[in-house]
Amino acid sequence: MGKYRIAVDIGASSGRLMAGRLANGKLELREVYRFENQLVQRGGHFCWDVAALFAEVKQGLHACRDLGIQPESIGIDTWAVDFVLLGENDELLTEAVAYRDPRTDGMMEEVFEIISKERLYLETGIQFQKFNTIYQLYALKKSHPDILARAKTFLMIPDYLNYLLTGKKANEYTNATSTQLVNAFTKKWDLDLLEKLGIPAEMFGEIHAPKTVLGSLKQELAEELGFDLQVILPATHDTGSAVIAVPELQDTIYISSGTWSLIGVENHFPICVTKALDYNFTNEGGLDYRYRFLKNIMGLWMIQEVRRNYDSVYSFAQLVELAKQAEFDSIVNVDDARFLKPDHMVTAIQQYCQETNQPLPHTPGEVAKCVFDSLVVSYQKAIGEIEEIFEQKFPKVNVIGGGCQNELLNQLLADATGKEVVAGPVEATAIGNLVAQLMAAGEIAGLEEARTLIQHSFAVKTFTGTRGSRV
Ligand SMILES: Nc1ncnc2c1ncn2[C@@H]1O[C@H](COP(=O)(O)OP(=O)(O)OP(=O)(O)O)[C@@H](O)[C@H]1O
Ligand SMILES: C[C@H](O)[C@H](O)[C@@H](O)C(=O)CO
Ligand SMILES: [Mg+2]
User: Fold this and answer.
1) Distances (CA, A) of 105 to 2, 371, 399
2) What is annotated as the active site (predicted)?
3) Spatial separation of the C-alpha atoms in residues 315 and 319, rounded to whole Å
4) Is 12 known to sit in a ligand binding site?
5) What is the distance between the alpha carbons of residues 2 and 194, in angstroms, rounded to a whole number?
6) What is the pLDDT of residues 133-187, one digit of tens each?
7) What are residue 30's phi and psi, to 5 degrees?
8) Catalytic: which of 77, 82, 101, 238?
9) Is-contact 133 203, C-beta < 8 A?
10) What atom in ligand 1 is closest to the CA of residue 79?
């Protein structure tokens, strides 16, 4: 029986501490602590309450102790692109402004005046999302040049939580690539790009690969908890950890399904060709310097907001059941910018249907059905683009993450594509986080052994298509 290790997986909608250990040839997983995450308003911006998130991490570690779990190590992963800046005395200079904040509106276009979109893609291979770190920093440089001038340390959200745990500052590779400031070939900060944009390179630290052992807890924290442990860098970008846990990648497209739907394949080299640029695919960094060739699709954020619009009176499972009963066929372009952060998602969906001369959804079931049908249309388009770029067919789609519990969505995808849709594991991100720790500790030899272990440890569910394509 191996010793427990803790994966802290914090998503845009929820966070969890999962304890895992090797037991009888399998990876045993148990949930220790779960908490909600949400945007807060700070200084006129949408932000993350990183102090509250750190308090939840500590609460989760206390829960380990109360369960008699003395973990050997911990690894933290979160969403991408967002960051904080520290000053001369390691004081916080900024709030953790969230990527859905409108401060980056128009910034991408201004950056293209300095470096062309094509050149930026050729060097970084990263998709163009208006909220990428590069545009957040450019916005900050314009609005608060004084803050940027005083900044001594750039830490992404997991990096900052690691700093609070250990006092150590380190930028982790997979998440660093999401900034669109890392060169896809050198795998280092693109100093030429930073200089062109007038972003101080000095605040960026050495980039550390997943499986790096960062160090132990700060003494006062170990004393508070009554135990110490090793802090290990997993793939701190949550999708980076999730992709590690895709049980079967052979001829398979994955969809990491949560707040976002991240659809793609694992690759051994960056694909920065024009077609990939035109389709807005990304080459985010993966474990062992593999690449996550994928694209963001708006994802279940939309149903999260729909649920919130109905005062959260329906569970996600109930919304799925209502959608199953709804006879409704209007489709929206889920990737339309209006759905990134609308004041009211249901209204935004209705307005889109009105503008496109389609019937408006009125009941929760009709709205949910519209969201799920529309997501499938976007998934199907992305699958076609991937197969065009790779010049091959992928017979299987593996949906991982919380969204794989949406059996209607899985079936709709199987029906529309005629492909085998494999659902699971639900907690792929935490599992990927844990196996990186096990690899760092030498308990697992490498990625191939990790994926075999995951295949043997977690059941999946398969959906096959019953009718033709939707489009
Ligand atoms: N029982 C369920 N039935 C259907 N869908 C579900 C169910 N439980 C969760 N979901 C879906 O899973 C989504 C959350 O997925 P997940 O827990 O992976 O997200 P997260 O990790 O909190 O956020 P992020 O995507 O930012 O990592 C919810 O938005 C919901 O749509
Ligand atoms: C903002 C990013 O696109 C987002 O974090 C995505 O990369 C992701 O991983 C969501 O879980
Ligand atoms: Mg998640």
Assistant:
1) 49, 25, 31
2) 238
3) 6
4) yes
5) 44
6) 999 999 999 999 999 999 999 999 999 999 999 999 999 999 999 999 999 999 9
7) -140, 140
8) 238
9) no
10) 26
Distance 110 CA to ligand 1 centre (A): 35
pTM above 0.90, yes or no: yes
CA angle centred on 76, ends 72 and 82, rounded to 5°: 165
**Ligand 1 pocket, 259 CB below 6 A?**
yes
To which H or E segment does residue 15 belong?
Answer: strand 14-23
**Rounded CA gap, 462 and 471, in Å?**
23
Amino acid at 361: P
Tokens of 216: 């132990």
Does residue 190 have an active-site annotation?
Answer: no
Using most ligand atoms within 8 A of CB, pick from 296, 302, 341 the residue to mutate for ligand 2: 296
How many other β-carbons are positioned within 10 Å of the β-carbon of residue 267? 15
Residue matched to tokens 């402004």:
97
d(CA 55, CA 92): 17
Q: Is 54 left (phi over 0), alpha (psi -120 to 50) or beta?
A: alpha
How many of the other CB atoms lie within 10 Å of CB of 350? 20
Q: Of 170, 196, 224, which is closest to residue 57 (Cα–Cα)? A: 224
Given pLDDT bands bounded at 50, 70 and 90, which one contains residue 467? low
Answer for the pair 217, 205: CB distance below 8 angstroms, yes or no: no
- Distance from the alpha carbon of residue 454 to the mean position of ligand 3, in angstroms: 18
In whole angstroms, give the CA distance from residue 409 to residue 284: 26
Report whether residue 8 contacts ligand 1, using a CB cutoff of 6 Å: no
432 ligand 1 Cβ < 6 A: no
216 is in an annotated binding site: no
Q: What is the pLDDT of residues 32-64, one digit of tens each?
A: 999 999 999 999 999 999 999 999 999 999 999
Residue 237 annotated as part of some ligand binding site: yes
